[in-house]
Write a structure and sequence with these properties.
Layout lengths: L3 E4 L5 H11 L15 H9 L9 E6 L2 E15 L2 E13 L8 H15 L4 E5 L18 E6 L11 E3 L6 H12 L5 E2 L15 E8 L2 E9 L6 E6 L2 H15 L6 E4 L6 H6 L5 E4 L5 E5 L5 H11 L19
Parallel strand pairs: 4-5
Antiparallel strand pairs: 1-2, 2-3, 3-4, 3-8, 5-14, 6-12, 6-13, 7-9, 9-10, 10-11
Helix pairs in contact: 1-2
């Protein structure tokens, strides 16, 4: 069977959506399993992001029919204090009629080659740990990164803060806060200068600027149904950190979890500098969190993977942007 790999075209969009919808609808066969049926919507959303590269959105053809799709999305990643170009693989989908015929492998190999030629240092993904290692992916390279703070330890205080929509005028303020909190955290995805890096179109997730007396003091992204489930936490300084913690605690009310979960790396300088309250840290690796090194001569990513693999270096903290949340 001859498999042809090429970059997507506009005329492929409908077929790509169809393949993703069919490939990930596992609940039809396994009603108790999680199905990623919104992957096709995520692909479409990412096409509107400034960093999208159509040459890294690949389709596989067999006998003139598109039977597979793989997206390698570019990100700037901080590793060892350096900003490295990388790609996130996903989603990758093959039509049910052509699964287990080599289509997926052909897409992955071709995508690696194109990404390498474009100067990307590594590829990363969350995927099946028994499948992707055959294509050079190392498992247990990243996983959970969070601080767990008991709400009872958060003192009462000022909670009359205001939330408002993120605007274009906020982007530089947000990026400066992000660097304050994540400049020394491995595998941090560097947010871009687009509003799409900061707002979410998922109905149950709130992304907002937080202000006190009209002055910006932070940014929050959290579940509307459970404010203790925080997806991004940024504060301007130590005082603002305390205010935001008190605000989230009050917003959660009495019926939610007694623990506030913050997606922050315990080794970050800002965590040590700005948070005085007691917390438990969670820093683990998942076998599904994988990295494939594309540039074998890059010592920075080599050192990170080797250190994590030997248990000598703490794993990083991959926090995906709002555009990925539609698939959660």
């Amino acid at each position: 069977m001859k498999i042809t790999i090429r970059a997507e075209k506009i005329t492929d969009y409908a077929r790509i959506a169809e393949i993703n919808a069919l490939a990930f609808a596992a609940y039809i066969r396994e009603p108790q399993s999680k199905s990623f049926v919104s992957e096709f919507a995520m692909v479409d959303g990412l096409r509107h992001s400034p960093d999208f590269d159509p040459e890294l959105s690949l389709v596989a053809e067999v006998a003139g029919e598109v039977v597979g799709h793989a997206l390698f999305y570019p990100f700037a990643m901080l590793v060892g204090g350096q900003e490295l170009p990388a790609v996130s693989l996903g989603p990758i989908a093959v039509a049910p009629t052509h699964q287990k015929t080599g289509v997926g492998g052909a897409l992955i190999d071709h995508g690696h080659r194109i990404a390498r030629e474009k100067g990307h240092t590594f590829a990363f993904l969350l995927g099946h740990p028994s499948y992707y290692p055959r294509f050079g992916y190392q498992t247990n390279m990243f996983g959970a990164c969070s601080l767990k703070m008991k709400r009872a330890d958060i003192p009462a205080g000022e909670t009359q803060l205001e939330e408002r929509l993120v605007g274009l005028e906020d982007i530089e303020f947000l990026r400066a806060m992000w660097r304050d909190w994540f400049h020394d955290v491995d595998l941090s995805i560097v947010p871009g200068a687009s509003i799409l890096d900061w707002i979410t179109h998922v109905e149950h997730i709130i992304s907002t600027i937080v202000a006190q007396d009209g002055e910006r003091i932070g940014y929050l992204r959290y579940s509307k149904h459970d404010p203790t489930a925080v997806k991004m936490f940024l504060a301007r300084d130590k005082a603002a950190t305390q205010l935001l913690l008190q605000y989230l605690h009050a917003k959660a009310g009495d019926g939610e979890s007694d623990t506030l979960n913050l997606p922050l790396h315990p080794n970050a300088h800002a965590v040590r500098e700005y948070i005085d309250l007691p917390y438990a840290s969670e820093l683990t690796t998942w076998d599904a969190g994988m990295i494939h090194i594309l540039d074998e001569e890059n010592e920075t990513i080599q050192a990170y993977c080797a250190g994590v693999r030997r248990g000598e270096r703490p794993p990083g903290c991959v926090l995906y942007p709002p555009s990925i949340e539609v698939a959660e």
